[in-house]
Amino acid sequence: MAYDLPKLKIKNMNWNPQPTKKSEGIEYFLKDSLGVGRRKSITQKVCPFCSQAVTLDSFKDELSLKEFHISGLCQSCQDSVFG
Q1: DSSP labels for 31-59?
Q2: Is 46 helix (H, G, I), strand (E, B) or coil?
Q3: How many CB atoms lie within 10 A of CB 44?
Q4: Which position among 16, 19, 20, 30 has the lowest Cβ density within 10 Å, counted as fewest Cβ atoms?
Q5: How does pLDDT run along the chain (83 residues), one tens digit per residue?
């Protein structure tokens, strides 16, 4: 079931995702592992795993949207990683 975007009261073009805070050590580890900074990929709305653009309406629920702000993973990559 698609996430009810009108509830968010946000349009994708106005969506400015903000990464959750992580320790510097975690940020460096993720950048070394993925080859791209987690914070940068989230703010630029690009998945660090598959390099695809991420849109607000691509998430199937609020939990998946929250996960994007944590990991930067698009819905497809979240489904692959978390099942």
Answers
A1: HHHHSS-HHHHHHTTB-TTT--B--GGG-
A2: strand
A3: 13
A4: 16
A5: 444 545 544 455 688 999 999 899 988 888 888 788 889 999 999 999 999 999 999 999 999 999 999 999 999 999 999 98
For helices 75-82 and 62-71, angle between their N-to-C axes, nearest 10 degrees: 90
pTM check: above 0.85: no
| Nearest by Cα to 71 from 60, 56, 81, 83 | 81
Residues whose CB falls within 8 Å of the CB of residue 1, separated by 6 or more in sequence, listed in order: 60, 61
Residue among 11, 56, 19, 76 at smallest CA distance from 65: 56
**Cβ pair 65, 57 in contact under 8 A:** no
Structure tokens at 12: 């994708």
